[in-house]
Amino acid sequence: MNSPTFEQQQTEKILNPINPTKVTQDLSENVILTTVDDLYNWAKLSSLWPMLYGTACCFIEFAALIGSRFDFDRYGLVPRSSPRQSDLIITAGTITMKMAPALVRLYEEMPEPKYVIAMGACTITGGMFSSDSTTAVRGVDKLIPVDVYIPGCPPRPEAIFDAIIKLRKKVSNEALQERAAVSEQTHRYYSTTHNMKMVEPILTGKYIQSATRQAPPKELAEAMGMPLPAIESAAKEEVESDRTE
User: Fold this and answer.
1) Closest CA to 51 of 111, 136, 140
2) What burial class does residue 190 get, using C-beta atoms within 10 Å of its C-beta: 0-12 exposed, 13-18 middle, 19+ buried?
3) Range of the domain at 89
4) Domain with 118 in it: what CATH number?
5) Measured between alpha carbons, how far is 64 from 42 in angstroms, rounded to an integer?
6) pLDDT tens-digit profile of 6-51?
7) 3-state DSSP assignment of residue 79
8) Residue 4 lies in a domain
9) H-type helices in the chain, by residue range?
10) The model scores a pTM over 0.90
């Protein structure tokens, strides 16, 4: 009787295993070899915690990701309300001069490594406010360094997923020494120069003390049935007395 071949023996072991499986002693199957950069980047890209930050209508699309329809928790994204527990900030909405210092403060309070996604046209370039607004910041990258841009007005939640995937690929290719140079802020300013004419503010808080309120014009007072000031009333009485004489 011919003895079974090696292939037949291996096939028999797979189909009819007699003994329980044992841990192989092969070094390549028990030890994982990697680099510190790869291990560090894998830990970072698998647990990006975005901060709950929104300033305008783009945040409605970002908030939709938290719901069960899109469920962005599957990417390891856990929304946090504190900048000290976040490593990703998605600037969803227009950034104004008044909000700029608060945004910079939140970014500086985030621990390293930290990443920024600029979401929407108003955040990237000022959008529809870039031509006639004196308060909108023409690009959030003038305040903080941006890693990924999401164009649109507003972008769909699927576009945010695409940005997250691109950011994860970027994180996976980073080195520890290079990231410090990339995240370093080299400039910071709020807006560019413009040729708009500055006008005096209308609401000064002195409406009650205004001269037109204390002594309104004669035509306005007569049209609204308001009593005329004492000087004009006296002058009017003199004119009427002269006519009667």
Assistant:
1) 111
2) middle
3) 50-182
4) 3.40.50.12280
5) 27
6) 777 777 666 555 565 565 555 556 667 777 777 777 877 778 888 8
7) coil
8) no
9) 6-15, 36-45, 58-64, 100-109, 121-125, 157-172, 176-182, 211-214, 218-224, 230-244
10) no
